[in-house]
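Quick one - first record:
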Amino acid sequence: MTESRSYHQLSKEIQRCPLAFELGALHIDIINFEYVPPGPYWVVPNHQHSSYEFHFISTGKGYVTLEDKTFTVTKNQCYLTGPHVYHSQKTDEHDPMDECSLQCQIRLNASAPKHELEEAERILKLLNRPNGSNHVDTNGCIGIFFGVLREIQEKRIGYLMAIKQRMMELFIAAVRNLHGDKPNEPIELPMNHSDHSIVRHCILFLEDNYQNQITLEEAAASIHFSPRHLGRVFKTITGRTVHEYLMALRLNRARQLLEVSDESLEQIAQECGITNGSYLNTLFKKHFGISPNQHRKNCVLQKCNVNP
């Protein structure tokens, strides 16, 4: 088996692993991680998807069409196909290209700290702008990609952790390729370590106990601070009150349960620390703009479309 064919088989093996991770305020699910070896006749016909797909070329040459714009891609170049953007790919017959691709769904965690949300929103803005051109891989995406394949090949102790870490590195490097030489807009760092430590410990307490009825006084007592001080610092750093953050946690957990379980609204409400199913229905619709039942139906339809 040639090396390129071996890489192709290794990438197929990674696709069988459920991979998801948090990067600041971004939740990222890996849908597809694939290496396509060079060949003189491979063509990907015009298509679109609801996810983001990063493409990296390590050798050869090919042609990409995004919507109505066609451009050439060559060795050490990359490009992005965003959600619902029609695109097609074709290799050059005389200098066939390979392709490394990372396809992922990205969701914003609205309950993340304020500075993490700001950075995540900037990244999403960058990913969602029209990207009808190629970019030079100045941040080593291709090397990171093959590093992932080596991890799955060698299967040394901790390789699953290492794969997830390299996926994070790959995502950040790909984003930086897209950003290029544009001026940076640094995110303001947290005000001071002690205040952020207070909020971090409070969030851990909320995440561990959101199923229970929690007051500001109880949250403050858990980290040995006055309720007034905690409330002020928490709002300054996260942009939300403790109660607002707690409700966002509960509603995000309720959404997850709707997506993966057949539990009733009453059961989900009880598991998430919400008074009853009726109140959950009201809160969910206000927060997400859709009823819990409709969200569950949409998820079922999406699964049917993916797995006909």
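second record:
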Amino acid sequence: MKHLLSYLMVASCLWGCGDDETVSRFVDEPASTGSSSDGALPPPRTPLFKKDYDYRYLLVDMADRVVMPSIQSFEQEVLQLSESLGSACEGGDAASIENEIINARAQWLSAMSRWQHLELQWLGPLAENENVLRNRIYSFETPARAEACAVDIAVVAAADANFDAATRANTARGLGALEYLLFNENLNTACSMAVQQTQNWNALPELDKLQMRCRYAQLAANDVKAQANNLTEAWAIESGNYRSRFINPDNTSHHLKQLSDGLFYIEKETKDAKLGRPLGFYDCLQLACPKAVESRYAAMNAQHIADNLRAFKVVFNGANGQGFDDVIAHEGYAEIAQEINASVDAAIVLAEQLGAQDLQVQSQAIVDDTSESASAACQAASANPSVEDGDFCDLHGFIKNITDQMRTDFVTIVNVDLPKRAQSDND
């Protein structure tokens, strides 16, 4: 929460600067009282502001302190990833190339960490045309998720001088394809023998395989760099200047809705797709689904989830500026924002505690336990999560605590609708 002095300074400008054209709540009627996790919202405290909250300040702060810095940081990390692969493929022997690939892994991890923050900022250019730019950069949880065989086919095709990585489907490009190329140490193809393009791959010398995969990794990294640059240019004041549209009072309701929708990434993507499906909680025909795990090759499942949660806090609280916590405080429910933050902090603690543990291992253990006791124990842990000796099932439960608060208290107080993709709860 921001200090009282900061509120009073902003309030004095809102009330005394002579501009009465403030942006009122984008829904004319107040939301009906919803119920919180303990039954009902407490009676509101007296709001600090006596006028409707001016969302222009929030949108300006989100653009200048959250979204644009996140995009610029990601672009810089991708640039460094591309540069790290620049000469990696020209080593004289297999060991030299392998060492360069290992070095590039660290830069991929940095780029992916920044991207996991942007995953909660699906708005503007990133969300246009059914998220086409987002999916080109990272296609997790889409029908065109990066797929090993598709990448292998692209590796072979890239030997053609006229090859253009930008023409490949999302199954063979983006950060997901780069993860496979950099972290998968099995040099044999993932394709079946029925796939003509890769039929001769396994017979190639090890050095040829390493060089060809490395060269396609260069092309894939350059493609991601180009997409990141497109995103930066779209927002930059001197070029696409989406910022001006984002902060335009005429677009307030649309962009506020996009921001609030972005927060629900932790429900549909983080909780349901990254945890719920691998653990067998939903949309899985087995006791669990190990192949649904995000980051199967880098085994960074917990770290990606921790980054999602940190990104949630940045959007929810703002970055030393206005955030949704200020909106909630303005409505007289500052303690609700504190409770949501406490729930997020608990989930972050466990995600960080899990560290390098691989969700695939726990998911496979549930599948292998034919007695189904592991599955039952996982369900119980999610229903009553604990940090002490907690695992991915507990983490699912902690995140559900957050999303339950978002579905009730948050949407009621901020007066927004649930995203279309979150109209139903899978738990």
